[in-house]
Design brief:
The complex is a heterodimer. Chain A is mainly alpha-helical. Chain A has a single domain, classed as ABC transporter involved in vitamin B12 uptake, BtuC. Chain A has 13 helices and two strands. In chain A, strands 1-2 form a two-stranded antiparallel ribbon. The longest helix of chain A is centred in the first third of the chain and has 32 residues. Chain A is globular. Chain B is mainly α. Chain B has a domain of about 240 residues. Chain B has a two-stranded antiparallel ribbon. In chain B, strands 2-3 form a two-stranded antiparallel ribbon. In chain B, α3 packs across α8, α8 packs across α10 and α13 crosses α15. Classes of the chains: A mainly alpha, B mainly alpha. Chains A and B meet through α5, α11 and α13 of A and α6, α9, α12 and α14 of B.
Chain lengths: ~325, ~350
């Protein structure tokens, strides 16, 4: 009885008793949710266009962040460093398309998935080789990102908003809007959607698959760079970020692999869900449940909707 | 010229269905077993046995486990490391409670616990498929990893949170713990691996194995043919976890000799074993050994071999090059031969049969 009370009633009483703390937790969850959504967005872009489950998205985030910081350490001005990093991501996209994807066309999905595993290791190796394995400080001020925090008095307490978190939320929203416009109204965006619908049909109307793949990997690279800057500003730029990127996976299965809105909604649900669970239910079992609660939430959703919240219905034929 | 089955007549169905139908294969496997059981323990140095052979055998066993569920049944699992951990902890608890029972029995019995946990986490596989399932198995990995750290009952409430391997004997010879020599540990491990490979080979060539493969090739069609999917998939998960669990117990008791479980059984271990299965060949038992050998020997060569021939390589740099090399190797193999080293081995055998003629 006591246990049931602790699990089902006590957390809600706590929420009611200290609403400012609840708001703070929700905000923390929202921000990490936005960042999960950003990583998931990179996955979705590539999965939609090429059907490749790109495991390397997490390491691309780290790699982009490391390149940016590394270039700046070499004395390159911040904005030029951003441009150069974009150039590196473009080169990476072209190289991946040419070396990895093109020879593996028409292979089963799992083979392509494994190839991105290999890519992950290669990128870890190159990144460590060039920039070293130790964590680096993100160049927040040079990029004009705000620092510090705002305290707002509300609901009988104080709630702290980090300025960088607000900036992250705003930038993420702008980027998602820009991507939506890009997909909806530009020529390349239409081509991307055509490829996502059917490779063969897209080929038959003269869309170059190779080109589209390079473009979409570049787009994922841009998303990775922005994610890298934001995550890097919140903590350090290090290979530990790669593990955080694994959190994008439950986001993906929650939202569905093929849906951009799904990635965003999924990210927010996971972000808020895991922060609430950690804060209110975590102490019951000794804390640290943040590491796996996201997967359990996603698994619960999957049992009801195997294709995710917004995913395409899976139709199987013999 | 020498590898040819001319003149070998099969007079019974069982001879025709044999795992090694050709005399030369039987001689070959005999030679390999002889080398492994007699020549290596006599002539191999302690360093060679403990850094090359013991990890190789442990990883082969784990890769076999993963191959059963991923290669034969087509369900991607990313929770191998955690299932190995369950085996290690189960063995630890069992030998603490019943210290008089032989440790080898407990190593094998710990697989049962791992199998139960594996079947539990395999339940979603009926409803979820493909990548969705891969992510679902990550839930097992992270949840179990958390348990290994947070549930003190598992490591007997000791302060370090590590598994302490006690000394256990077989016929009066220490086979685990600080007093066991690498050679004894190696021989025990070899016995376990040979036994379990033999069992796996028989199961996978029989009705159960064929059920797995039917599910892999197309589960709806398999269902229409009268295969019950839930038992089939759960058996695959349970059998796979059994092998992983035994591998984990072997890893802790016969290789590491104790240590932090959260380090040994983390997500990277799962990926590592997945690579072995992919490079070795999905759906092939011999591929598990090839993959484990390759991915086990490459880091050792980079770590010890290159400095020995005069190429100076610091530990960290070796690690980076190792990442780079393993990554490139995976991509290379996927492009050149998506079916792994096992397929290359088959091609070689075919070439040998027709040699010196082209076909």
């Amino acid at each position: 009885m006591d246990l049931l009370f602790k699990v089902f009633i006590d957390p809600f009483l706590q929420m009611g008793a200290m609403p400012d703390l609840l708001v703070q937790t929700l905000w923390e969850g929202l921000v990490s949710g936005v960042l999960y959504a950003l990583i998931a967005l990179g996955f979705v872009l590539i999965f939609k266009a090429s059907g490749v489950f790109n495991f390397a998205q997490g390491i691309m985030v780290v790699f982009a962040g490391l390149t940016l910081v590394g270039l700046h350490e070499k004395g390159v001005p911040a904005w030029l460093a951003v441009l150069l990093t974009l150039g590196v991501m473009l080169a990476l996209a072209v190289a991946v398309e040419r070396v990895v994807l093109r020879p593996l066309v028409n292979q089963p999905d799992i083979i392509l998935f494994m190839a991105t595993f290999g890519l992950t290791y290669v990128l870890i190796g190159i990144g460590e080789f060039i920039f070293g394995g130790e964590p680096k400080q993100m160049i927040t001020e040079e990029l004009g990102l705000p620092r510090g925090a705002i305290d707002v008095a509300m609901l009988g307490g104080r709630v702290t908003f980090q300025k960088i978190d607000i900036a992250a939320a705003v930038i993420a929203s702008i980027m998602i809007a820009a991507l939506a416009v890009f997909f909806q109204y530009t020529r390349i965006g239409r081509a991307l959607r055509a490829v996502a619908d059917s490779h063969k049909a897209a080929l038959s109307v003269g869309i170059s698959l190779n080109q589209i793949w390079a473009i979409v990997w570049f787009a994922a690279g841009i998303v990775a760079l922005i994610t890298g800057i934001m995550w890097g500003a919140r903590s350090d730029v290090s290979f530990a970020l790669q593990t955080i990127a694994l959190k994008a996976l439950p986001v993906l299965i929650l939202g569905g692999f093929t849906s951009i809105p799904g990635a965003i909604v999924g990210g927010l649900i996971i972000g808020i869900g895991e922060k609430l669970a950690e804060f209110y239910w975590g102490p019951l079992v000794g804390g640290g449940i943040e590491n796996w609660i996201a997967y359990v939430i996603a698994l619960g959703f999957l049992m009801v909707r195997p294709q995710g919240l917004f995913g395409d219905k899976i139709i199987e034929r013999i | 010229m020498f590898y040819r089955e001319a003149g070998q007549y099969k007079k019974t169905y069982s001879a025709d269905m044999a795992v090694f139908p050709i005399l030369q294969d039987r001689i070959g496997i005999g030679l390999i077993l002889l080398t492994a059981a007699v020549i290596i323990p006599i002539f191999g140095s302690n360093f060679f046995i403990s850094t090359v052979m013991i990890p190789f055998l442990v990883f082969s066993l784990a890769a076999m486990g993963l191959n059963i569920v991923t290669g034969y049944t087509g369900l991607i699992s990313l929770g191998t490391g955690a299932f190995m951990g369950v085996g290690a902890f189960a063995c630890y608890k069992l030998t603490t409670y019943f210290p008089n029972v032989n440790i080898i029995i407990w190593i094998l019995a710990s697989g049962v616990f791992s199998a139960a946990i594996g079947a539990l986490f395999g339940l979603p596989s009926l409803r979820i498929k493909g990548f969705y399932l891969a992510v679902a198995t990550l839930a097992a990995q992270f949840f179990l990893e958390w348990c290994f750290v947070r549930v003190p009952w598992l490591f007997n409430y000791n302060a370090s949170g590590a598994i302490e391997v006690p000394t256990r004997t077989l016929f009066g010879v220490a086979i685990t713990g600080a007093n066991a020599t690498p050679t004894t540990r190696y021989l025990v491990l070899l016995g376990i691996v040979v036994l379990m490979t033999w069992v796996a080979s028989n199961i996978l060539h029989g009705r159960i194995g064929r059920t797995f493969m039917a599910v892999r090739d197309m589960d709806i069609a398999a269902e229409l043919m009268g295969i019950r999917l839930l038992p089939a998939k759960l058996t695959a998960f349970a059998m796979s976890s059994f092998y992983c669990g035994v591998a984990g117990a072997c890893m802790m008791f016969l290789w590491y000799g104790g240590g932090e479980a959260s380090d040994a059984f983390n997500i990277n271990q799962s990926f590592n074993i997945l690579f072995m299965v992919i490079i070795g060949g999905l759906g092939s038992l011999i591929g598990c050994f090839f993959g484990a050998a390759l991915l086990n020997i490459v880091p050792i060569i980079l770590k010890f071999g290159l400095p020995a021939i005069g190429v100076p390589l610091a530990g960290a740099t070796a690690e980076h090059i190792n990442h780079l090399f393993v990554g490139s190797l995976i991509i290379f193999f996927l492009i050149v031969e998506p079916h792994g080293l096992a397929r290359l081995w088959q091609i070689t055998k075919q070439k040998l049969r027709t040699w010196p003629f082209p076909y």
